[in-house]
Amino acid sequence: MARAKVPTRPRGSLTAARSPAYGARRRRTARLRWFDAYVLRWHNLGIAVLIISVFLLPWRSAFSAVETLRDSAVEGVGYGVFLVLLGLAGIGFVILLGRLELSRRAARVAAGCLCAMVAVWGVLGFLHPSSPLAGVSLRGVGAGGAFGHWLVGGLPGIFIWLLAWFGSSYIFWPRHTRAAIRAIPPTLISLWRLDLHGRLWSAIASMTDTPSAGNELVAVVEREMALGPDANDVPDEEAQDGERPPRATMHDVPLGAPAPVRGIPHHPTPWQLPSLGLLAEADAERQAPDNSARARLIVDTLASFGVDAQVVQVNQGPTVTQFGVEPGWEVKTRTGPERDSRGKPVLDRDGNPRFRTEEVSRTRVRVNQITTLANDLALALAAPSIRIEAPVPGKPVVGIEVPNTSASIVTLRSVIETPVFQKLSNRSKLALALGKGVSGDPVAADLSKMPHLLIAGATGAGKSVCINSLIACILTHATPDDVRFVIIDPKRVELSGFGSIPHLALSKVIVEVDEVVSTLAAILREMESRYKRFEAFHVRNLEAYNRHPKVTQRLPSWVIIIDELADLMMAAPYEVERQICRLAQLARATGIHLVVATQRPSVDVVTGLIKANFPTRIAFAVSSQVDSRTILDTVGAEKLLGRGDMLFLPTDAAKPRRLQGAFVSDQEIERLVNFWTSERWEPYRPPTYDHLVVEARAEQDREDQSDDPLLSRAIELAQEHSRISASLLQRRLRIGYPRAARLMDDLEEAGILGAPDGGQSREVLAADRGDG
């Protein structure tokens, strides 16, 4: 019997045989398939999250919209942008790896990480970095941005911050957190039984009732400092029955009393900067010369020589006045008969042909036409000398610098008080107030950017005053923890006034020429020691070392002052040149900077190797163009007026700039030195580095006691000449003067040289020369 055929229905058709739940399930399945196909594409979502995290990196972007988004994120969360970046990157990698699962454990970990991030944000809110992040300054809101500032700036934020600490601790370490919570009530009960709150309240009440306790503490501390460290062991005459009367302690200081400035052991750096009242104020303005008359005289003098020019700027400085002269036009004309439209000559009333003048060409007046008239202009202006700067940097004029009839003094205080110097001193402790320019504008420079300074000029031109003003300038805004000096003064009197300041790295000012080599060797030892410390902390320079979080004691910058280089080059030319050049080449990164001055700028003193390592130079008045070229590689210093008139050549300038140097008197230096040598700073005077000099001298003595390996070469050199000197041994053997002098003594003891006869060279005995 054939089986009856059951009729079929189309797939997906809704009939009474299928329940409504089946249709709903089919529709939900279709929606999930669409959602999975277009929305929940996990691979693309992970890539998008990673791209967003990359855009949050604090770097410069080529797209303004991305940069605006990044800046807004930095302003909102500060350094927490790195936390957001890390979290987004982690989520992106989890999505790409397919490990994202919505479980209770994953939600717990995510909540713990979120609480930890909020807790770290609150910590960042307490920090106020000085440097901006991606060009956005966070000094006002803190390292945590606006969100971190809100967390620690009010009661609701602090409550949420503490709650985040508790939440992260409870999620990651639940057992230890519960144990700590259970230990809080017993601890509070024990503190209550000890009555600490009552004792604290009574101590506060007693301190508020005795407002003079702070002054008593200061008096006690000062008396103990005056008596010395053993003052506590001296019995008190008023003590009875072997008991000592109670002493004032730090806990006896009232809340409103000022903190003592001396003798407090937990205050390691109590240095205070001196007031600018120790420096002299600027002199009263002197009567200005008639610059309009001098400007007309310049124009008339140039016109008398056929040079068209106009004075367009007048910049009056303390010593000279600069007249900005704009060159005119040199017009060539041609005179010919005037003709009408038909080409016939035009006649006047008398029947004579008319003539007309027409312009053929128009060219600018050449600059050298003005510069060659320097002596003629000086004669017309009755000036001792004028200097022409053609052209003035950054201006389309030729500068004619004419000395003023009466020069005004530029005081050090007048430059330090200017905004230019104050802005520079806020960034660097080695800011220098150099003086004022020809237009009266203050000029300041950073020694750490130079990084070494060479000063040269004739006697009496102002070199020593310039060095004194540079040292005094640093003393006004740097403490011994910031800057230390090593002063070498062969003249013995120029810089000896600074011999007692606590800024000295050594215990005295070096005045003996024999000690210079060992002193420079000690500075080289300090430089090598600093490089070893940098290597240990993986940093490149002194600034990075001092900012390193593991550094417990910051290193100060060193400034090496050498007043007269010529004396040192005469005593030991090879060793001094080698040591100075090595310091100039390597010491910049370690924070050691050189300031070298000389009054004899010849090529045997300022050698090519020294000049190559001193890119920043100051030239005072010299006697010839040769000396000017030796210092500045250009002329101009021979036309300076002296008494602080100088040319300053920084590293970033193509031409030197004329300045009037800042002046500091002996009375101002004495007041600054008295401030820094006050008795209140004695307990905090930093230790000196004399042990480095002792070690360098001991090493030199060991070389002296041992047989010199160059003695045989010195004997061969003596056999080649009839007379030799210590300088000959220095040049040929490339050694210093002390070693060359010892070799001369050894040759005399060996009978090779004769006795000194008063000259620099000594005779080589013929019997030992081997010339038969």
The assigned CATH architecture of the largest domain is 3-Layer(aba) Sandwich
Report the radius of gyration as a whole number of Å.
Answer: 41 Å
- What is the name of the CATH topology of the largest domain? Rossmann fold
Q: How would you write the strand order of the largest sheet?
A: 8-7-15-14-13-9-12-11-10
Please tell me about this protein's structure.
The chain is extended. It has 772 residues and is of the alpha+beta class. A hairpin with a 4-residue loop joins strand 7 (431-437) and strand 8 (442-446). The longest helix is centred in the N-terminal third of the chain and has 22 residues, at 104-125. The termini are far apart. Strands 8-7-15-14-13-9-12-11-10 form a nine-stranded mixed sheet. Strands 1-2-6-5 form a four-stranded antiparallel sheet. A two-stranded antiparallel sheet has the order 3-4. The chain has 28 helices and 17 strands. The protein has four domains: 34-181, no CATH class; 293-334 and 357-403, Threonyl-tRNA Synthetase, Chain A, domain 2, CATH 3.30.980; 412-690, P-loop containing nucleotide triphosphate hydrolases (Rossmann fold, 3-Layer(aba) Sandwich), CATH 3.40.50.300; 707-769, Winged helix-like DNA-binding domain superfamily/Winged helix DNA-binding domain (Arc Repressor Mutant, subunit A, Orthogonal Bundle), CATH 1.10.10. Helix 6 packs across helix 7 (155-172).
